[in-house]
Amino acid sequence: MHYDVIVIGAGSMGMAAGYFLSKSGKSTVLIDSFNPPHNKGSHHGETRIIRHAYGEGENYVPLALKAQELWNDLEKVSGKQLFLPTGVINVGYEKTDFIQNIISSSKTYSLPLEILDSIEVNKRWPGINLPNNYIGCYEPTSGVLKCEECIEAYRELAEQNGATIITNSKVIEIMVHDDKRVTIKTEDHTFSANALVVSAGAWSGSLLSMLDLNLPLNPIRKTFAWFDTKDDLYDHKEFPAFSFETSHGHYYGFPSIDGSGLKLGRHDGGDTIDPDEAILGFGELEEDTTDLKQFLQHYMPFAQELKFGKTCMYTMTPDEDFIIDTHPNYPNVAIASGFSGHGFKFSSVVGQILSDLIISGKTEHNISPFSINRF
Ligand SMILES: Cc1cc2nc3c(=O)[nH]c(=O)nc-3n(C[C@H](O)[C@H](O)[C@H](O)COP(=O)(O)OP(=O)(O)OC[C@H]3O[C@@H](n4cnc5c(N)ncnc54)[C@H](O)[C@@H]3O)c2cc1C
Predict the structure, then answer these.
(1) Cα 58 to ligand 1 centre (Å)
(2) N or C: which end of the chain has fewer CB within 10 A?
(3) 148-204, pLDDT tens digit by residue?
(4) What does residue 23 show for φ and ψ, rounded to 5 degrees?
(5) Which residues have C-beta within 8 Å of that of residue 140, sequence separation ≥ 6?
(6) Whose CA is nearest to atom 37 of ligand 1?
C-alpha cells in the first residue's frame, strides 16, 4: 500500500503529527511497536506538566504558548478535558539559570508570574516546607496535561480524518530511495510513501542509524511514584504542580487529582538503558524510593506513605535541547527526538511542525535551536 506519509512511532510526537498531516488531507499511516497510548515508552503515568515561563531557556516560550493554544483547540474539538489549570510553582535558589530564565521569560513575554519568598510560599501552600534561601515562581496560567488522554484524543481525530494506525508492529527496516519515495518494513508487511516522519522516542537512535545518521541520543531509565496525602493540603484544587531545583536534586510533581495521591519524580540522574531490553521495575534500585522520600521529608513533609511507582524513559541529548529537523540528505524525512524529559507539553506544536516540514519543507516556528547540525 502506498501513502503520502509514513509516521514511525505513534506516541507523543508521532500521534500529533498524524493528526495534523491527516487534517491537511495527506494519506497517512502511523506504525507503532505497541498500541498507543501505552506504558512501554515515554508518555505514560497519567500527567505531564506544561510550563510557559521556561527554566530551560527563553527560546522555548513561543513554542510553549503555541502548544498551549493547540491543547486548548484539541479540548474543544475532542470535547474532552485534557488540561487542568492547577498553576505551576518553580522553586530554586534565586541566582540559578533555571530561576533566572523563568523570570526573564515572564518579562519578555508578559507572562503572569508571582515571585514569592519562602515565607510566602509556606503560608500559601501549607503542604510545602521551603527553607528560607529558596524562592518560588508561581505561574497561575500553566498546569497539567492528561498525557495518555491527549494521545487518545489525537488518535481518534486522526482516524476520523482517514489516517491508518497500525499497532503492535515494529519497524525493522527503512529505505529512502530518493526525495519522493521511502519504503519501510515491519516483520509482516512493507509500506511505501513519498515522505517519512521518524518519531520513535527512545528507539530513534537505532532507527536513524539505518539512514546513516548517528545522533548522540541517550535513553535513560526514570522512575516516579504516588504518595498518600492529606488531600486538603495537596488536592489539585488547592495545590499546584511543581518543579524544585534543590541541593538534593531536581524534582517535579503533581497535586493529588481526584484522590490519586501526590505524584513525584526526580528529573536529574538516571542510568543509560537499551530500550529493547527489560528495564528494572520501580523499587529494584534502592534510590528509587530513598530519593523521593528524602525530597518529601525536606520539602513536603505531610505527604505520607508510598502507594506505588513506575518506570519510564527519557531520551537525552548532550545539551538537553530537542532534535526537530529534516534529515540532512533527505528533505522528505522529518525527525523529532531527544526530548530530554521535557517534551510532552510541546507535542501538540511539534506535531504541527512535523506536518509543516513534510508538506512544505519549512515551518513558521523557530526550530533552529533543535537542528541536527549542532552536533
Ligand atoms: C517519568 C516522565 C515524566 C515526564 N514529565 C514530563 C512533564 O512533566 N512535562 C513534559 O513536558 N514532559 C515530560 N516528560 C517527557 C515527555 O513525556 C517526553 O519527552 C515525550 O513523551 C517524548 O515523546 P516521544 O514521541 O519522543 O516518545 P514516545 O511518546 O515514547 O513515542 C515513541 C513511540 O515510538 C514507538 N516506536 C519506537 N520504535 C519503533 C519502531 N521500531 N517501530 C514502530 N514504533 C516504534 C514507541 O512504541 C512509542 O509509541 C516526562 C517523561 C517521563 C518518562
Answers:
(1) 23
(2) N
(3) 999 999 999 999 999 999 999 999 999 999 999 999 999 999 999 999 999 999 999
(4) -65, -30
(5) 87, 112, 114
(6) 200
